[in-house]
Amino acid sequence: MKALVYRGPHEVTVEDRPDPTVQAPTDAVIRITTTNICGSDLHMYEGRTSVEEGKILGHENMGVVEAVGDAVTRIRVGDRVSVPFNIACGTCRNCAHGWTSFCLRTNPTEGMDGAAYGYANMGPYDGGQAEYLRVPYADFNLLHLPPGTEHENDFTMLSDIFPTGWHGTELAGQAPGDTVAVFGAGPVGLMAAHSALIKGADRVFVVDKEPDRLAMAEKIGGLPINFADGDPVQQIMDATDGVGADCGVEAVGFQAHDPSGDEHPELVLDNLVDVVRSTGGIGVVGVYVPQDPGAPDKKAQQGRIGWQYGTFFSKGQRMGTGQCPVMRYNRQLRDLIIAGRARPSFLVSHELPLAQAPEAYGHFDRRDQGWTKVLLHPGG
Ligand SMILES: NC(=O)c1ccc[n+]([C@@H]2O[C@H](COP(=O)([O-])OP(=O)(O)OC[C@H]3O[C@@H](n4cnc5c(N)ncnc54)[C@H](O)[C@@H]3O)[C@@H](O)[C@H]2O)c1
Ligand SMILES: [Zn+2]
Ligand SMILES: [Zn+2]
């Protein structure tokens, strides 16, 4: 099969790889119909993780079941399915409590709970930016979708970013009528804004500096804040008579930067602590890493980020963090799509064959105007 492989910083290639097979009786093999490029892939693409050369990337996968192992009884060959990016066993303590993103069994990496396809530190699993993908514990992990091709570009957001955006608002403790501040208008931030509005937010501020992404936030009902035009905290304070937001979502991650592009990993955390009112919640779904050899200072290289914890404490705020447990939300979000109440496909900017993935990575990585979300269709 053809697959998109990491070869080193800023270098990915499409190569021939053996087709995946059923290795355990609980496995399935999926023929990929749509697989997306994610902002998380860019941390690897830029050489800011320890991902191995030769790894097939891709954790946002959907498709049709091609084969199943003998122990798979719920999922059948021919089923159309969404593949959550988490690889979960379904029976460990964390899985049993709904925290599939911290499965205790599927990731052999020392000190890391939780596994994923094609991702640094998340276990030895190939990704799905390829024609086929092996899915462990298929009965537990896979989500059924209605047969056919309807809503393909909406359903493809169910493997990661729609649940992740929703999770950001859950971690923030958002309630109907809240004013929400979302930092980052990348795909995850836009999904958090979409989720907040579905959940009855009063106002949703969306902060970024990319005009095309801010325009998209405005189109779905958000209030764009361009941090290149001045301090985003001050802009939101001015727009709320000095009250600030009831809660906030961090959808940027450890490569947060200032308008000139210089990285400051503490910047968005500090902004959120300042802009969220006392006792408010902050949901951090942007990724931070335990070690970051490419960080701007020595402490950040060791994962020690100097944000204003003292003010956070004094304001009695709460913070939730981590990878999204997709299965907590994906059934309900699928049904909101079918009911016409959610339309996460609004952010799709490009649909390309797998062969064009390397150039798409380049455009998406530079945040080139108009490259908001790339969908790959390996079948052509
Ligand atoms: N927790 C999870 O389960 C999960 C899942 C998917 C993605 N993620 C992470 O979410 C983050 C966002 O993903 P994405 O796909 O939207 O990526 P992205 O890189 O396309 O979007 C990030 C956006 O943040 C903006 N930004 C940078 N500095 C900023 C600042 N100081 N203030 C406001 N905005 C700023 C950038 O301009 C960009 O538009 C990444 O860190 C990704 O790894 C986490
Ligand atoms: Zn993703
Ligand atoms: Zn588990």
TrEMBL record:
One Pfam family recorded for the sequence: ADH_zinc_N
Alphabetized Gene3D superfamilies for the sequence: Medium-chain alcohol dehydrogenases, catalytic domain, NAD(P)-binding Rossmann-like Domain
KW Zinc (keyword) present: yes
Domain Alcohol dehydrogenase-like N-terminal: 25-139
Domain of life per record: Bacteria
One Gene Ontology MF term: oxidoreductase activity
CDD domains per record: PFDH_like
Boundaries of every Alcohol dehydrogenase-like C-terminal domain copy: 187-256
InterPro entries, per database record: ADH-like_C, ADH-like_N, ADH_Zn_CS, GroES-like_sf, NAD(P)-bd_dom_sf
Known cofactor(s): Zn(2+)
Record's keyword terms, sorted: Metal-binding, NAD, Oxidoreductase, Zinc
Recorded family membership: Belongs to the zinc-containing alcohol dehydrogenase family.
Matches recorded under PANTHER family: GLUTATHIONE-INDEPENDENT FORMALDEHYDE DEHYDROGENASE, ZINC-TYPE ALCOHOL DEHYDROGENASE-LIKE
Protein name per UniProt: Glutathione-independent formaldehyde dehydrogenase
Species this protein is from: Micromonospora sediminicola
